[in-house]
Amino acid sequence: MPKRTKDYVVSSGNVFADLGLPNPEEALAKAELAHKIALLIQNKGLTQVQTAKLLGVDQPKVSALLRGRLSGFSLERLMRERFTNHRLMAGGRTAEGFDSSQVTDLPLVGQPIG
Q1: What are all long-range contacts of 106-111, with beta carbons under 8 Å and residues at least 24 apart?
Q2: 55 in a domain, yes or no?
Q3: Does the pLDDT value for residue 81 go beyond 80?
């Protein structure tokens, strides 16, 4: 039986680079940050409306973020919305009746989750 050739390519670890997209490092960092934000929102049981109020953005922006539509987000904005301003980490009421004292932060990009 003839030997089969590889019909796949081993990834470099960055799918955006593998696809030849521009600025692959930035695209990967944005995707990782968006994923971690989405995990935090999901783990804490926040709605998009609650999240929007806490972050000071409108609900459609939260929806875009959660769906991976990141073209409207700079890396700097995602870092800001990654709760570095402590809006979700601070104790007490931060938006219409929502007690955020139970919300915790996620690790930075490149650090393990959990």
Answers
A1: 106/36, 106/37, 106/39, 106/40, 106/82, 107/36, 109/29, 109/32, 109/33, 109/36, 110/32
A2: yes
A3: no
